[in-house]
Amino acid sequence: MFRKGDSYKNFRVLDVFDVSDYHSVAFHLLHEKTGLEVVHFLNDDDENLFSFSFRTPNKKSNGAAHILEHSVLCGSERYPLKDPFVALSNQSVKTYLNALTYPDRTVYPASSIVKADYFNLMDVYGDAVFFPNLAPEIFMQEAHRLECDENGVHSIQGVVYNEMKGDYSSFESAVSNACNASVLGGSVYEKDSGGDPLEIPSITHGELVAFHEKWYRPENCLVFLYGNIPTEEQLDFLQERFLSRLEQKFPPADVSDGGRKSRVAEFLSYVAPAPMEKPVECRYEGPKGGDGDETKNTVVLNFRLGQVSDSLSAMENTVMFGVLMNHDGSSLHKALIESGLGDDIAPQSGFSSYLYESVMSFGLRGVRDGDERKVGELVLDTLKKVADDGISANDIDATMMALEFSQRSIRRSDGPYSRVLMGRIVYGWLYGFDLSRQIRQRRDLDEMRRILAQNPGFLVERMKRLLIDNEGRSLVVVVPSEHFSKERDDAEKKLVALLSERTPAEEIRDVCSRLHEFQRKEDDVSCIPHLNPRDFIIDGKPRMERFGVSVSSVDGIDSAETGRGIPLLECRENVNGLVYVNVALPVDVLDVEDYPFVPMLSLVATECGWRTLDGRELGWAESAEECALHTGGLGSMFVTTDSGDTDAAVEMGKSRGWLGRDWFMFRLSMLEEEIEPALGILADCMTGTDFHDTKRIKDLIVEGRNDMDSGIVPDGSMYVESRAKCRSSRSCAVDEIWSGLSQLMTLHGIDDDGIGALSERFRKMVARMMEGGALVNVIAEESGLRTVRKLLPSFVRKVSLRSLGTVARRSVGDFVGLTLIDGKGSDDGDEVFVVNSQVGFAAEVVGAGTLASENAGVEDVCAHWLSNNLLWERIRTIGGAYGAFCSVNSFQGLLEFSTFRDPSPFSSCDVFESCLEEASGIDFSVDDVEKAVVGDYSRWIQPFAPRDRGMTGMMHSLEGLCECDRARKFMNAIGTTAESMRESFARFRMSAGTKRRRAVMCGKGQLPDDIDSAGVKVIVLPV
After folding, report:
1. 349-359 confidence digits (pLDDT tens)
2. pLDDT one-digit tens code per residue, 150-166
3. Are 658 and 804 in contact (CB under 8 A)?
4. Considering only CA atoms, which of 363, 329, 325 is closest in space to residue 345?
5. Which of 325, 350, 348, 322 is nearest to 336 (CA)?
6. Which pLDDT score, from 0 to 100, does residue 995 have?
7. What is the Cα 830 distance to its own chain's centre?
8. pTM
9. Where are the beta strands (DSSP E) in 890-965?
10. Contact at 8 Å (CB) between 48 and 229?
């Protein structure tokens, strides 16, 4: 165990500190020859994570840092492949693999639970960042190039270029960028580190290489490590694989305290904003949706709060924001909603502390012209009123409850929780803050409580200093404008014309020829080692994540008559003293015509206030406050399921009437010590909500519609995939009705006159679902499970929950009519959706085997291989799309394909089918097959956060997916052969010829000239 001041080979230990909440000891070390710094959180977690982080400020919006993030992963000194990142994705059992560009830094993280794989990942990533190829062809591919098609039409292409065209098609992205730029002027935060598509073509290959030489130096790098691999072993690996070579590449770094401080000071000259002498008002434009109202703007009041150098300061600001905006009933949140100045709270509202100076924002979306300043005045007036009246004890207690719940939560979102710890350490290192004070721990929460107890005026004083009396603020107005996209389109055309005039046709052809030759070069991926699939079988059983659910029942109020009970699904998980309860009501007892309104019911079911069982009337603000005081959250969700077709699932379905049904779930989370009052609140909500507050319902539906509108273009792949498969099965149709473009159109069809009828419909829907019975799921530790079991009978009586009945099963034909959207063309053809976007999205589904098929696992391996080989090469690398994805849906028997931010969405589906044709004829080697199996295996061992594991276990129970079927599919995947892969691809290819469906989403400018005669249905969306 290292101590501060110790030396280990070429490393000096700068600090050692405990991170007890995360069962870790942290070692901060400095490599004395190169200046590279290492922080290792050593613990017992076998999911080890590493990251290489660099300070990468850029005074231009030419995208240098973002392009470099892509480019370094396109081949390096020891791994001279054109895309080693994809090779890793194909054959690694990684649990996380990414590269991230922030406004002032670039981070390369990866994680694995297998030591050998972990070091393989580190070897490839370290070589990439320090010794990249950065050939001109890589620059052409990732940054920009001028192309000329067969019709003589010129265009700018490039992966990053197309990615950022997608970003500039998002209104919410435009608002977020404006908010930061408005209060952080005079710094790199005014610029777009991702790159403005109108500026990206200005960067040269030489400038990119120079950017790497300046910032990707070892003395400008922090290596973060987390997990149980010994520190010494990791330091030895870094020394042997990278540092020994870096010592030869760079002169010795100044590793004195002064030298390290001078490097931080140079960086701060880029990120420190200029002083703000007085408040400013800024007006910007952003992309407008299809039928969006140009008179309804987003207005945000932003405050520059200064540096947040430690976790306690961050918590103090979090508490200050919380007492104002923590829940719907919080003072400022309520004032904004009730003002009528806008539709709903602006998504940019919040406390941002990931940049050098933190920003706190409050705003509204949907503000009419002329009311913009009123929003700013309302925020300031409310802040002053809160300061004058004092902050209520309930607001403070509710905020502290939220922090307590957050502190106990073990979360995992798109990767391990260690990413959060990594982010805080990288943040502190960037700006020269004390690393030992960056991680929020229980001691910060305890100290916060002590401060509030000793100084009741603490938050008011802080509010006055950082908000009310703060001149460093901005009122930002962003207008959804048709001119924004048109002006950018016109500017792009002028830029293309200028470049085509300056560039000889022969040079354009030569550039494209060189690039295509580079892209089609065969890679020898043998330089990247991989594991053996048989290593994942222990004692004849597969090593994979497993889900345990205990099934029993509790009596309903009618159980004596029916002889049935309420199914109780218990998931015992180490949730750190938290409890999660889901009460599910059957949706399939409703009429089909009610289905489109289920998502709207979910928006309002727990947000409208209610009459408590003891006779109190709680409005929406009062009920929100009560929830915040006693729960970690009360909400609802809806889910549709299919039952599996395996023998085990069929047998299970004979005794479990809940398989393959549709559900509306009330979801409650709480601390163990709050179980009784929290269940009381849920009982009040389920029995006492009568949906009489039509104004509140309207506000919530408008908010839901706005959220969906703003997500259509960013999540375009998801929506076109839903359309492509919505006629494949009943659950696919229901999912489209609830979460797809069908729901978008339903929301846009609701007007003010229909709210009253909607309230009555909601009352009837809830009553019918309650009559249909219930199912209860509990996720907790044993102590929490015992307490819930004890209280459940009383809860059942209070809510009058009935035993779960049976229902006649419906077919896909019952729901297809609800998925139809008006447009030009036949309902029987493929679909094209027109939106305000500069890039497109494509999707296609073809038939595949189901879970019961003998090659279910092999087909998964094939889809994984296809995503990380042919599709990546043809659609991403050559085609310039930001992403191309392929997966097998074994419940539906579908192979699902989609693209993301695609410059050529109409040709991508043809490319997909040509890839199936090609793959069916490939003579896969044993090595090819093993790598594909290993890469696919990473899905099977992805660790789950305890709550997520419990929820997944519940979903498996609702679908009839048992561990034996999962194990059988796994063993089938492990046994994949070259012949079984070819046969699977041949089946996919044949299915594409007989059973396939496509959908495309794109901007109007991407529509082919012959679209009217293409046999597709064209639908213009209101976004």
Report:
1. 999 999 999 99
2. 889 999 999 999 999 99
3. yes
4. 363
5. 325
6. 82
7. 29
8. 0.94
9. 894-900
10. yes
